Amino acid sequence: IIDNATGSPVAANIQLVDKATGQVLQNLQAGPDGRYTVKPNAPGEYLIKANAPGYTAVSLPLTYADEDQPL
Fold first, then answer.
1. How far is the C-alpha of 24 from the C-alpha of 16, rounded, in Å?
2. Residue 17 and residue 15: Cα distance in Å, rounded?
3. How much is the pLDDT for 50?
4. Is the pTM of this model over 0.70?
């Protein structure tokens, strides 16, 4: 996660959400470099939700088609 204005990484809270059910499947924290890794359990449609104090929350779609697909 990167701040668009400054280019600085943001240690945001990340959620992996099942798009069909709305169930939160994973909660994690982006690292100090702004990176994070999610691993859905099965192919499907998901949302990646990110939020951090002082920033607007963001929700992005993720289509996970193959268990060998790098994320």
1. 6
2. 6
3. 96
4. yes
Output the six-digit token pair for 63: 């289509």
φ/ψ of 36, rounded to 5, equals -150, 160
Instruction: Determine the 3-state secondary structure of 29 from DSSP.
Output: strand
Angle at 43 between CA 63 and CA 29, to 5 degrees: 65
Alpha-carbon torsion (55, 33, 1, 7), positive or negative: positive
Choose among 23, 25, 29: nearest CA to 9: 29
Cα–Cα distance between 15 and 50 in angstroms, integer? 7
pLDDT digits (tens, 9 = 90+) for 8-58: 999 899 999 999 999 999 999 999 999 998 888 889 999 999 999 999 999
